[in-house]
Every structure is written in C-alpha cells, then in structure tokens.
Amino acid sequence: MKFTEEHEWLRVEGDLVVVGITEHASSQLGDIVFIELPDEGTIVSKDDEIVVIESVKAASDILSPLDGQIVEINEMLVDEPSKVNEDPVGDAWFFKMKPDNMDQIDEYMDEAAYSKLIS
After folding, report:
1. Structural domain that includes position 57
2. Is the pTM of this model over 0.90?
3. What is the pLDDT of residues 79-92, one digit of tens each?
4. Is 20 part of any domain?
5. Where would you tag: which of 24, 56, 73, 81 has the fewest CB atoms within 10 A of its CB?
6. How far apart are CA 43 and CA 119, in angstroms?
7. What is the pLDDT of residues 25-34, one digit of tens each?
8. Is the distance from CB of 64 to CB of 47 less than 8 angstroms?
C-alpha cells in the first residue's frame, strides 16, 4: 500500500489501483455526512479534484493520485458516507482506477514514511 501527502491510500489490485482516505484523514474530518464520487468512465489527470467529502467539521476535495480512468466507484458510500469513519482503509474505498502508467505509484510513500509524516 502507498500513501499520499493528502492522506489518501492506494492499493494495487492487478492492473487497477483502489483509492481511499487514511484513518488519520477520517479522524481529522470527523463524522462524514456526504460524499460525491466521480462517474465511472471518467478520465482523470493526477491532482484533478474528483471526490468531494463533507463532514460535520469541513468540506474537502480528494485529488486523483494518478493519471487514468475511473472504472468503479463504491456506491455504498453515496448512501452511507459514515462508513468512511468506520472502515476507511477497508470497505470504505472511494474508487478503482486503471492508471495510464502504473509506475506513477512509486512516487508515493510507504507505510513507514506515512506514519512518520503524521506523527
């Protein structure tokens, strides 16, 4: 698993990358009340704003960590955004994407480097 400085996690599954937010981000946001996900099939570039999260504390944008195409979204989160608070690194992933270049993932931190960032 890789991590971004914006507190996203990336998990490779075959030729896809699954993206969500970290437990740290979830706890900082507080109770999440709304999530707007991108449409499946959307072509994105790294750093495009593609997810909107609203919590009782703030609204945040999630940026695309890679260039590629959104191939699946986690529909459950639209109806139950609070799942992100319950299981941010498990069932509450945001989207799966097919990256244009899988090597882009190497730019991100491993778990040890991310732990150091948030400590």
Report:
1. 2-100
2. yes
3. 999 999 999 999 99
4. yes
5. 56
6. 34
7. 999 999 999 9
8. yes
